[in-house]
Amino acid sequence: MSDQPSGAEAPRRFLFLDASARTDGNSARLARLAAESSLPAGAEQRWLRLAEYPLPPFRDERHDGDGTYAEPTGHAKTLLDATLAATDVVLVAPLYWYTLPTDAKLYLDHWSGWMRVPGLDFRARMGGRTLWGVTALSGTDDNAEPLIGALRLSAEYMAMHWGGVLLGNGSRPGDVLRDERALIAAKSFFAG
């Protein structure tokens, strides 16, 4: 039996992974606003701060031995289980140096290992789910192109649906709540 819902029978399960170095930062505030106003009726939510589930550095072991990885343990197992339980994965990630923050990138790096755990079938199980992004940045939207590209291409590689990225502008805590364009977009972001 698949752990992925079949159509309207099961509620959608959104996993929000906050990769910000700041608690309750602009990206998280924008994501919460979008969740409050645009999640589908009956959708479940789970919020995890990646900083509270630190992952070890990712080691590329594809060419060592038989190229398989051991079943994850500890925080990696918690994040793996949460990821597989979700129909929709939302990376809440402020723009850092034009791309994803370290915790978000490390989480995605661990997907490479999870794809090689015997019997897990991670890539096949992720297919058909949706990957989203919510990010706050300081500057023009063009600055976020590397972050958007990384997430979009990751979704394509995993045969996931691409939900898009909700962008908000803000540097100091709370600034994003003054970005009228972002606030309007948040109200329908997950409904699309």
Task: State the CATH class.
Answer: Alpha Beta
**Total separate domains:** 1
Radius of gyration: 16 Å
| Straight-line distance between termini | 28 Å
Unreliable residue stretches: none
CATH topology: Rossmann fold
Percent of residues in helices: 25-40%
Major β-sheet profile:
5 strands, parallel
* Number of strand elements: 5
Secondary-structure blueprint:
Elements lengths: L12 E6 L7 H13 L5 E6 L24 H12 L2 E5 L9 H13 L7 H5 L3 E8 L7 H13 L3 E9 L10 H7 L6
Parallel strand pairs: 1-2, 1-3, 3-4, 4-5
Helix pairs in contact: 1-6
Description:
The longest helix has 13 residues. The chain has one domain: Rossmann fold, CATH 3.40.50. Strand 4, helix 5 and strand 5 form a beta-alpha-beta unit. It is globular and about 55 Å long. The chain is α/β, with parallel strands linked by helices. The chain starts with 12 loop residues before the first strand and ends in a 6-residue tail after the last helix. The protein has a five-stranded parallel β-sheet with strand order 2-1-3-4-5, sandwiched between helices. Helices cover 33% and strands 18% of the residues. Helix 1 crosses helix 6. The mean pLDDT is 94. It has six helices and five strands.
Keywords:
Rossmann fold, 5 strands, 33% helix, 6 helices, 192 residues, alpha/beta, 5-stranded parallel beta sheet
Summarize the structure.
With 192 residues, the chain is of the alpha/beta class.
